[in-house]
């Protein structure tokens, strides 16, 4: 018997609100499953954009409706296949998102991996949607490997919001996704000997955003890299970057990390007017940036830019805090050592 559309809604909603990802992402998935997101085809059909602009921005081949964009577009499809291949799964994706969600199950039985699996559905469609928006509104695009890294990074960050004492860092997850098959230690002894590290990150005041930046140096590879993460007062991730830079002394690299955070902030109209705190774990870098002069002469150009941007009447302040508060930035900086190109993502 054909199901009524309200029972379809019930099916779709069931199992959706498990808080494995931020609420805004659950809401997006819910709207997408119900076909209520504003795709270009939908906007064209109601006359908001011309019909000749209804093409999918990712491939330019088909009209952008929900199923095409989030499942069948070649780029999206490759992202789904990459995730399924990671776990040795062959699956022909259903024709629409609702069936995809309802059939989204994995035979691996661990309770933790079940949550990973559920979260991956949300994260893949969210990552496709954010990429689509970046291409339309920011005129910037990522490659498939970058999107794959982003799926793993979002997953490993959002795992931090769960109660599980998952012991791996975002970098570990990106390097070897197999660590997601971790199982919860059952005995109290096991949890007692491996207490989860306590986050010592200190949130900024309401209406203020905070960058944590860090630099990394690998003497064997002879490489330097910088990384940073922007969060609001609730700890929500807003933006992150991870970039290789020319080989340089670590305090100088920290100055470049601060410089990059400011550049990104000033170039984004959504946060241009926010007050910003930039936190670095290098006391030297912070001292050079906040003093009117001093610091290595060869950094003068960069330091002057930072001093101008964070001067007396500016909404940007630069502070020093210990390494313990900087886990994510540290991980992104280390990840930059393995990159050939800049990585920047708005979440
Ligand atoms: Zn497409």
UniProtKB/TrEMBL annotation:
Annotated Reverse transcriptase zinc-binding domain ranges read 7-80
Q: What InterPro entries is this protein classified in?
A: RNase_H-like (IPR053151), RNase_H-like_dom_plant (IPR044730), RNaseH-like_sf (IPR012337), RNaseH_domain (IPR002156), RNaseH_sf (IPR036397), RVT-Znf (IPR026960)
Looking at the UniProt entry, the stretches that span the membrane are: none
Identify the domain of life.
Eukaryota
Query: Taking every annotated instance into account, which residue ranges of this chain make up the domain RNase H type-1?
Result: 212-335
Entry-linked Pfam families: RVT_3, zf-RVT
Instruction: Write down what this protein is called.
Output: RNase H type-1 domain-containing protein
Species annotation = Spinacia oleracea
**Gene designation:** LOC130469596
